[in-house]
Specification:
382 residues, alpha/beta, Aspartate Aminotransferase, domain 1, Aspartate Aminotransferase, domain 2, seven-stranded mixed sheet, four-stranded antiparallel sheet, 13 strands, PyrdxlP-dep_Trfase_major, pyridoxal phosphate, Kynurenine-oxoglutarate_AT, transferase
Length: 382
Amino acid sequence: MNDIQSKLPKVGTTIFTVMSKMASDFDAINLSQGFPDFPVSEKLIDLVYQNMQIGHNQYAPMPGLPKLREAIAKKVSNTGGVDLNIETEITVTAGATEAIFSSVLATVHSGDEVIVLEPAYDCYIPAIELAGGKPIPVSLNPENFTPDWEKVKNSITDKTRMLIINFPHNPSGAILRDDDIATLKEILEGNPKLIVLSDEVYEHIIFDKETHLSVLKDEFLASRSIAVSSFGKTFHATGWKIGYMVAPEAIMKEIRKVHQYNCFSVHTPSQYAMAEYLQDEKNYLGVSGMYEKKRNFFQQAIKDSKFKVIPSYGTYFQLLDFSEVTDMPDLEFAQYLIKEKGLASIPVSAFYSENQDHHLLRFCFAKGEETLQKAADILCKI
């Protein structure tokens, strides 16, 4: 049929899929798509298997297993967050993307405006558009990828319904500071209709003794925010597609109306496994140290290259400025690296709605040291 009118006419295949396919086609080292190349904890895998064997293979409750929601509430409390009602404020989701889609579809109405801080992960704007909303891109400061709060304030109108934030930030690794939290609270206090959707999937990957400042650590922010988390990111099991979201009861009630038809429930044995695995807080509090070593290894390995390292305070991504290497557009240079040098990355222009090009590439360092060293050797020879 040729008469189907696209609801997302500007959307094609994501840059992550495109660059990973190119990496496969040209047998390149893949530091593009954000997935680890090392194994998931054997204990966690055994827990999933054991629960399959026990017979936990049918539908879980729509909001998630009570014992997993209890474990999530305990984790939030352990990391300095607010006390949560497991019946009304936590929902287990099919990964963070489902949580984001369900949240936006439930709360954004036709004509509503949603401020998106760019560069931004590419699922935000399609979700807004599918909800009938209007995305309002606001660029982060290009020097350090911190929020330009004056720009945010100036972008708020009487139609603004939501502000989407993502820290630790993909692709830059930037984090929020205390003054950012104070300004965010000030903005919400002055705009009672505004809610925050906080994508916190890298909450347990933060470096240099910094602290992740979740919206759930402040009672007022928590009362006006939806926080999205990912077990896939925390436990390097991205293919399991399991995460959760936290929101005030009134907002969560609406989100669950969408979630129950968008997904209904999440893989049951994995929920049982996660509930038990979360009991040992070392399983999530120890993740940052492991990734910090990988970040340091990669940065040290490329220190003699012509690429400029942009500080990464969290996530498992490293931005490199290649302006001293070539004046090629970032997409063209990324394709050149794959085809001619055997190394895949992501051009950062893909994270902007207008494809702003600051001569930056994103590299994923969630890899073994041998892989990172091979990638660094390539970069140092360019």
